[in-house]
Design brief:
527 residues; mainly alpha; Growth Hormone, Chain: A; 23 helices
Length: 527
């Protein structure tokens, strides 16, 4: 017993000035929990607001469409700061950067809860997303350094568990807090979680700091990144209100986004110390897995935001009940994810990813058959099945993206990978909600073509309403509400169907990647 402690300590210290060895015993357990809690808090904050948007919008006096900026503003700022992770890590060290990210996140979360207006809330969400950027890639990197290489699959599975549990708990917790307390508390709950995670992380990892080097900041690259991502997101969010390309402002934003993106690519590929290491895309497994993740997550998250909006606005669900419809996705996800981690060394990650996309497609095809008479059981079955897809979604694609990378490149690669994922999630949200509204207008116009005083069904429906005490004007308003409900349901079905087709097509993208030898995250066939 006496000799085990020095051995444990030696294993956790850098050997000959190299990377720290794996952790053991209680340090490994508590370190994993602390890092997972930080990731949980970060991902939770993205999903917890989904079911609370109607309440936040109503309380702050804006429309639900404007309220979705609470989600997209966080996502865009988070995505923009993610590629900076590699540079910031080399400049300040993994542990110090992670600690700063967590503590700043806690402070701004508290300010979000205090926000008295939508403008201030969006401002604080932007800051919150920006400081949260390094948190996820660094938690992943620190977790991988805590485990032996042969258990890297288990480490990734543990990390992925937090990204699975948070979206499950988020809608439930957000709905319950919104209905029973008040929406600011969806932000206040970050305070104790963040402080606890920061304290434990510092105690365990403070002596495992990575080397630092003073590198010049690529200010031009960062400015161009903010410019093109910001212009594109504003285009997607405001396009509907400004009638898209009928608006000079939208045309100007698109031109700015295209020009800034083009210059950004040229600059980053020629800069000695780029803010984003675009040369990672020269690796086949990185660009294929990143492309697959971005498109899949954009479709996935867009639908995750759309479903509770539809349920609350047109199906009469409360925030809590809408959360319960989304929650069962975690059942199979939590049960199957550890099995994925254990078998990642034995099974080609492309096989797992194929299974994930096929199940996602099946679930979305099922949702495309929804109607306004759908009961709770009908809504829950696809959600439960989707849990199996989520379980084999993150870990295989992360494994493919990081395969063959040197340890010092992992934070930068993880930041860029997650930048693509979160940016796509924000874009997917904007596209889904915008398309939902536009398709609903089309379906509404098609449905009302038949609603004339000479149509027997229309006359019968109006007569029945008036027989129940409604005035003629109230009857027409009630009938219009029914048409709205049908139109938005048909529009949601359109989005579910197109998303399903996209997942089927993405299976081909996954198989463009090279097979990973042994399924591990650090060995792969030569690019």
């Amino acid at each position: 017993m006496a000799s085990s402690r020095p051995a444990d300590q030696a294993a956790s210290q850098p050997a000959n000035g190299g990377a720290p060895g794996p952790l053991h015993g209680g340090a490994l357990i508590f370190g994993s929990v602390a890092l997972s809690l930080a990731t949980f808090m970060n991902v939770l904050d993205l999903s917890i607001a989904n079911v609370s948007i109607p309440a936040i919008s109503g309380d702050l006096g804006v429309s639900p469409d404007q309220g979705t900026w609470v989600i997209t503003s966080f996502g865009v700022a988070n995505a923009i700061s993610l590629p900076l992770t590699g540079w910031l890590t080399r400049r300040y060290g993994q542990v110090r950067l992670f600690m700063a990210s967590v503590l700043l996140f806690v402070i701004v979360s508290f300010l979000c809860g205090l926000a008295p207006s939508i403008e201030l809330l969006i401002l604080f969400r932007v800051i919150q997303g920006a400081v949260a950027g390094p948190m996820i890639p660094l938690s992943q990197s620190l977790l991988l350094s805590s485990y032996p290489k042969e258990k890297a699959g288990t480490a990734l599975a543990l990390w992925a568990m937090t990204t699975l549990v948070a979206p499950v708990v988020g809608p439930l917790l957000g709905g319950w807090i919104t209905d029973n307390i008040s929406w600011p508390w969806i932000f206040y709950i970050n305070v104790p979680v963040g402080l606890g995670a920061a304290a434990v992380t510092w105690l365990i990892y403070q002596k495992r700091e990575t080397p630092t080097v003073k590198l010049p900041i690529d200010g031009v690259g960062l400015g161009l990144l903010i410019l093109w991502v910001g212009a594109l997101q504003i285009t997607l969010d405001k396009g509907k209100d400004l009638d898209w390309f009928q608006s000079g402002r939208i045309i100007a934003l698109v031109i700015v986004a295209v020009i800034a993106f083009t210059i950004f690519l040229i600059w980053e590929l020629t800069e000695e110390h780029p803010v984003v290491d675009l040369k990672l895309f020269a690796r086949r497994n990185f660009w294929t897995s990143t492309l697959a993740m971005a498109l899949a997550y954009g479709a996935f998250f867009g639908n995750v935001v759309l479903l509770p909006l539809w349920l609350q606005q047109f199906m009469g669900y409360t925030a809590t009940k809408a959360g319960w419809v989304l929650a069962p996705v975690g059942v199979l996800a939590i049960l199957l994810t550890p099995l994925v981690g254990k078998n990642l060394q034995k099974v080609d990650p492309r096989v797992f990813a194929t299974g994930s996309f096929a199940i996602f497609a099946l679930v979305l095809f099922m949702r495309a058959q929804f109607n306004t008479n759908a009961d709770l059981k009908t809504l829950l079955i696809p959600t439960i099945i989707q849990g199996a897809a989520v379980a084999v979604f993150f870990v295989p694609l992360v494994t493919l993206s990081m395969s063959g990378l040197e340890a010092e490149r992992i934070p930068g690669a993880s930041g860029l990978f997650n930048f693509a994922r979160i940016t796509a999630g924000s874009f997917g949200t904007s596209i889904a909600t915008t398309w939902w509204d536009r398709r609903a207008s089309l379906h509404h116009a098609q449905l009302v073509e038949r609603l004339t005083p000479y149509d027997p069904s229309t006359a019968q429906a109006l007569a029945s309403m008036q027989a129940n005490g409604l005035t003629p004007e109230q009857s027409r308003e009630a009938l219009n509400r029914i048409v709205d409900q049908q139109a938005f349901m048909l529009s949601a079905n359109d989005i579910f169907y197109v998303s399903a087709v996209l997942f089927v097509l993405l299976i081909a993208v996954v198989w463009l990647a090279r097979p990973v030898k042994g399924g591990g995250p650090v060995s792969v066939a030569a690019d």
